[in-house]
Amino acid sequence: MANIEIHNLSKTFYIAKNRRKPASEVMALQNVSLHIPSGSFFVLMGGSGSGKTTLLRILAGIESFDDGDFFWNGVDATKISQEEKSMAYVPQNYVLFPYATVYQNIAMGLKDRGLTTEEIIACIRRVAKQAGITAILTRKPRQLSGGEQQRVAIARALAREADVNLFDEPLSNVDPKNRGTFLRLFLEMKSRHNATFLYSTHRLEEALTLADQMCLLQQGKVIGVGTPQELYDKPATLQIFSFLRAGKSLTFSGVVKNRTLLVANTKIQLSLPDGSYTFGLSYEDAYFSEEGIPIRIQNVLWEEDGPHLSFASEDGTFRGTLLSPTPHEVGETMHVTFNAKNLFAFRPNGTRVD
After folding, report:
1. Same domain (yes/no): 137, 80
2. Domains identified in the chain, total number
3. Whether pTM exceeds 0.85
4. What is the pLDDT along the chain (354 residues), one digit of tens a residue?
5. Please, how many CA atoms are within 13 Å of residue 276, restricted to the half-sphere of its CB?
6. Which residue, of 157, 252, 326, 332, is most buried by count of CB atoms within 10 Å of its CB?
7. Closest CA to 59 of 32, 40, 39
8. Which sign, positive or negative, has the C-alpha torsion 153, 76, 220, 190?
């Protein structure tokens, strides 16, 4: 297995000018520092342009970096060959050899490891069973669905029995109804293989399900590192709270005086020192009721789980969107309530109040 250390890693892409745009620079990674423990399942989470793919490509030896250090078991990674690193990489746009069968796609590279024919057959049978592709070993990629092709790419990586396995958005092309099957596959891989896994995703449910530790990346910067429970249940900053609950939370500002918060002319008792705060609340911790903060419905969006009502208080200080058990009309007046114990309070500098 491998212990990976990254110190102040930076990468800038230079974009040449063309007829419409001048030359420009894009900083993909900015002073990224991470410790990826040997044998861990480490998840990089971020949206498009966050730098997670660039970081994986650097670790895979495909992309160079401008500044910083990258150590592999305590040794400068730039002085170690890729073969010595024992690494498997599955890019987001994986490539299968079109004229080779599934069996042949998985077998490629195994002979280079010095395995006998019997050992290769046993290895392919084992990973094919784990990936659920035993029945399609004789087919060619054009005869497979997108999900089946993804399983083949995963099986090919597992067959290498590498110390480190890199997966870049492996479920991005998987149908939502089949995503749970793949999550179970990765959970089985996590328990069966004594190896290190680095997995990138923009989906919170994938990160929370799989990660031993996760890193939150935003515009090339690390904004948080920790276990899923630490980051989600006890966000250290407002930035982490907003990142993990994007589109699923309410945030509002208020002043506490004499242990009382006044929101939209509604008093809420809080055990906080006097001062200004930004408050965060998960959607699941708030609900419509007959009492609470008065609001007016501004929009109604119907989704699979029912009507989602966008609302705002009369003074505009309290607004958001919540799922309603019953339909309501735009302009209708209602109330929103919540348990004050579920509020996250953040200081003006963005740090959370314990």
Report:
1. yes
2. 2
3. yes
4. 688 999 999 999 988 777 777 778 889 999 999 999 999 999 999 999 999 999 999 999 899 999 999 999 889 988 888 778 888 898 888 889 999 999 999 998 787 777 889 999 999 998 898 888 999 999 999 999 888 888 898 888 888 888 899 999 988 877 777 788 888 888 887 787 778 999 999 999 999 999 999 999 999 999 999 999 999 999 999 999 999 998 788 888 889 999 999 888 888 899 999 999 999 999 889 988 888 899 999 999 998 888 889 999 988 888 888 888 888 899 999 999 988 888 999 999 999 998
5. 4
6. 157
7. 32
8. positive
Which residue range(s) make up the domain with 101? 4-237
In a domain, 351, yes or no: no
- Joined together, the tokens standing for residue 252 give 């509002």
Residue 68 lies in a domain: yes
Please identify, among 237, 270, 288, the residue that sits at the C-terminal boundary of a domain: 237
What does the block give as tokens for 45?
Answer: 């989470």
Do 189 and 260 fall into the same domain?
no
- Distance between CA atoms of residues 312 and 320, nearest Å: 7
The Cα angle at residue 68 between residues 47 and 65, in degrees rounded to 5: 60
**Is 198 in a helix, a strand, or coil?**
strand
Domain boundary among 199, 221, 237: 237
Dmax (CA) for the chain in angstroms is 77
Q: How many CB atoms within 10 Å of residue 285? A: 15
